[in-house]
Description:
The protein has two helices and two strands. It is of the alpha+beta class. The protein has one domain. A two-stranded antiparallel ribbon has the order 1-2. It is globular and about 40 Å long.
Amino acid sequence: MAIESEWIRADMVEVSEFPYLIAKYQVMGVPLTVVNETTFIEGARPEPVFVDEVLSVLTSSSESTAGEQ
């Protein structure tokens, strides 16, 4: 997704080299995807399922932001 859009940033981290990230994100399993520092998707997913989950998070986040204005 990050390759396709300038609005998406992706980082891959070896958590054993950054133990503070284990604590910050309470990593119990990998892969762990963090969306906007609020939503966590843990474990491998088929690509279509993963994309749907991310889009769902972004859609609900944009709807709640629109309601605040």
